[in-house]
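ugh finaly. both done.
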Amino acid sequence: MWWWKKCREFWDVMDRRGLCKSLYSYSIYMDIQCESGKLWRAVKLYKEMKKKGIRLDVVAYNTVIHAIGLSEGVEFSIRVSREMKEVGFEPNVGTYNKKGCAPNVMTYHCFLGCLEKPRQILRMFDRMMNGGFRPRMDTYVMLMKKFGRWGFLRPVFIIWKKMEEQGCSPDACAYSALINALVQKGLVDEARMYEEQMLAKGLSSKPRVDLGSKPHTE
């Protein structure tokens, strides 16, 4: 603990002598605050940097995301990660798995919702699965909707297949996401096939007019 106190003394000396604190200085001191459990101080330093107009780099953002996520919650860390992307930095592995910040299903769900590159999303999804975290149904649906909206059909089926491999029975939202993606690509016959499956399972009682499916009867 003594060296953390020593670092604080050096930091105070810089203030007293009017020495200019660089991004490098702030990054080191923020990391020290995190290691010592004083997450609120790390967040305070981040706000101080922004007030001074200091432009953060990837390392600094990763430290802030870790600190603010643990001290104020995942939603706040997501806000900072969005800010990070807005200023031109792509999140890296350290952003999502900062030392001492153990991810959970909700953490992965939130970050997957923020990512905007298909390959990056699939890598993160694989990381989630390989880490032993089982996605929730709303995570599967969110990803299929996202890929479908972008017009990427192959990733939609990758997620669908993963869902089936995990023994998750698709609900009406999952079917709708897949069907919408197929319709967008003009694959009406295939979309109709999945809608008929959904109707047969009783997940919906009203077939889509544009597909011409018939209501399921016993």
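ok and the 2nd:
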Amino acid sequence: MFGNWEDRLLSKLCKSVDSSLSARPPYCAGTCPIPPEKLVLFYGNDNEVDLSSRPTPEELDSLSNACQPASFGVNHKQVCDEFGEMNIANFATRFSARNADLIRIVELYKLDVCGKDSFFKAHKDTPRHETMFESLVAIFPTQHEGGEFVLREGDREWSLDSAKMLSECPHQPYVGYVSFFSDVEHGVREVTSGYRFTLTYNLYFIPENQAPIGTASAPAPYEESPAAPLYTLLTDPTVLPKGGYLAFGLRSYHPIRKETNVTNYKSCGKAVSLTQ
């Protein structure tokens, strides 16, 4: 197909654009400073625990024992061991992803507790609504080892050690966070000591006219890398000399039903996403 040098150059440019686009990871992660008073958790009838300091083993055991066995994944299959969760009706927290400037279009979903020897297997989440497109997990700064958050897409894998990230933060309390598309396979490796406490949020598409004004940020390296080969490709007079369309394959799946009118999503083009 690519017999002459022009065809070979075109093939090389196409591959360069493709490799640049595929280099983008399906998540973002980091740490965020939080005022200590925002890391108090209330649960049960009259219980509270301050997760900004060093809670006692008894306090952490009490919170863990108040949780229910967790289930994750498609059709709520059990894919974890000794992993506890608490729904939002049974706890309250002063921490807010909105107030932490992590995200604004978000719904608090649940609290998860992972103690020693606990883990949950790699799985994909069951979307709670067809407008849900992403999940955000906030990790509290409780002392623990292990419990790395693992994400997989195709033959690529990423491992995020939030315990290590948080231990390297300054003295002011920080929370760790990871945001990822709903169809990305993910799991938590075994916690070898301590307790790993997380809050999970669901992120949803909203109409563009309801979206908050985004803040400008410097483009990531993977965003700049396609620019040069794409420009060269599109300014080549031999490429689509009579006009045409460029098609970009979608990497993520969203829970659209057959009867859904996809034109309703045209106004959701600027959904607020940490991974965008």
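summary for the 2nd one i guess: Residues 135 and 202 are 5 Å apart (CA to CA).
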